[in-house]
Design brief:
The protein is globular. 42% of the residues lie in helices and 11% in strands. The protein is α+β, with helices and mostly antiparallel strands.
């Protein structure tokens, strides 16, 4: 739970605090899944309790952090499409994930995106999750992200996020301990809460918090430090973060202060292809996508959000042989740049489109190793707190391996050693 920042609710589930979203003082239990989920759904939709209702739950298993259930009322006489119009999604947070994710900020993100027409209606929060309207469409698979029609649609939607959604300042929500770790190593374990907050939010000087740099700092502070090996690993990652901040955080980029409102978790399971019959504007022959799950959304350099998405072309298996080539990245970035400048609320008078494409192409190249660092730290924490059946330790090793391979290239260490260029780096340099 983010210290001092979680909203509560009254006994009747009314609003409390600064959130505009209803709070239900109940929780979801995996050991009593359907019954606990039904109680939550009926608190939001009491009309589903009538005699004609037939509420069913569909479990989605694509995620590796949360439990996601679709609640649909299959009343007699309704077609699947009609039932889906009223369906809702229930998302219950994974064990201990509040040490990684600021849940209050997540709800703010969802509300912000709702106001810009970029998120489904958020119906309610409950003690360990939230419920929102079901988004009709097809969830993509990693191979779908590699189809030109899909990745151009992703580029346009991501440009819309970056061009139109403002970055909201605040604090980087944090928890001073997780369920299995007594605390953090110095300096965090010796600091008062206010000083700890200052250190956390000041990791990238001049950049308003929260941002992707403060998130990574928060995660490094949350790493387990029970053994000497763990403490040494934390110290090494802390040093690397300092290097990344000094190298990248002050580079010029799109948005205010070089930051845009970024999704930061644009894997295939979070990209939904909208049926062409539902397209509200534009060319209905073109694919349209929307994004779901905003728990990691935060101000970030646009180049990081793009590099992070490109890394997801390989899926959870981290298939480095299918990552986008230079030609594919250029095609994506061309579509993105055109949409971005077209959707800016205050459009610049003169834009050198070719120059902007080249600039962003090069920036994404600078950031190509950072997603491995970001998700590698995340997975190290998940390996100690998650109850989900996923090999987080191996995933952390793979993702951090991507980062160190990139480091070896930019520092020339791999060349000097005479080692073969890693597949991921080789694929990144491939032209077609």
């Amino acid at each position: 739970m983010a210290v001092g920042r979680e909203n509560g609710g009254t006994a009747n589930g009314e609003l409390k605090g600064d959130s505009h979203i209803r709070y239900i003082p109940r929780s979801y239990s995996s050991s009593d899944s359907d019954a606990s989920a039904l109680r939550l759904v009926l608190a939001v939709l009491p009309e589903w309790e009538d005699a004609s209702s037939k509420v069913e739950f569909v479990r989605f298993t694509d995620g590796i952090t949360n439990t996601l259930l679709k609640a649909v009322n299959k009343r007699p006489g309704l077609s699947k499409e009609e039932a889906d119009k009223d369906a809702i999604l229930l998302r219950a947070y994974g064990n201990g994930t509040d040490v990684i994710i600021d849940r209050h900020r997540e709800a703010q993100n969802h509300e912000l995106l709702m106001r810009h027409g970029l998120a489904p209606e958020l119906l309610a929060r409950f003690e360990n999750g939230m419920m929102y309207r079901f988004v009709r469409g097809t969830v993509t698979q990693p191979e779908d992200l590699r189809k030109p029609a899909i990745y151009k649609a992703v580029a346009r939607r991501l440009a819309q996020w970056h061009a139109t959604v403002p970055c909201i300042p605040g604090r980087t929500g944090h928890s001073r301990k997780n369920s299995k770790t007594e605390g953090f190593s110095a300096p965090s374990g010796t600091l008062g809460d206010a000083e700890f907050q200052r250190v956390l939010d000041g990791v990238a000087p001049g950049k308003p918090s929260p941002n992707v740099w403060t998130v990574m700092q928060k995660w490094i502070f949350a790493l387990p430090t029970d053994t000497e090996e763990q403490r040494a690993a934390q110290a090494e990652l802390q040093q690397e973060l300092g290097t990344l901040v000094s190298e990248l955080s002050q580079r010029p980029g799109l948005g205010v202060n070089g930051l845009v409102f970024a999704h930061c978790d644009l894997l295939s399971g979070n990209v939904i292809v909208i049926p062409k019959s539902q397209a509200v504007n534009g060319d209905k022959s073109a694919e349209t996508v929307t994004f779901i799950d905003y728990e990691y959304a935060t101000p970030s350099p646009a180049a990081f959000d793009l590099a992070n998405h490109f890394a997801e072309w390989g899926g959870f298996d981290c298939d480095h042989g299918v990552l986008p080539t230079r030609a594919q990245r250029r095609e994506f970035i061309t579509e993105y740049v055109r949409a971005y400048f077209d959707m800016l609320p205050e459009k610049p008078i003169d834009i050198d489109e070719s120059a902007e494409i080249e600039k962003l192409f090069n920036e994404v190249d600078h950031y190509r190793g950072v997603p491995g660092f970001y998700w590698g730290i995340w997975a190290l924490i998940q390996a100690t707190i998650s109850e989900i059946d996923f090999d987080y330790a191996s995933y952390a090793k793979t993702r951090l391996g991507e980062y160190w391979a990139w480091r070896g290239e930019v520092r020339g260490e791999r060349q000097r050693s005479g080692k073969e260029i890693p597949l991921r780096e080789r694929r990144w340099e491939q032209e077609v």
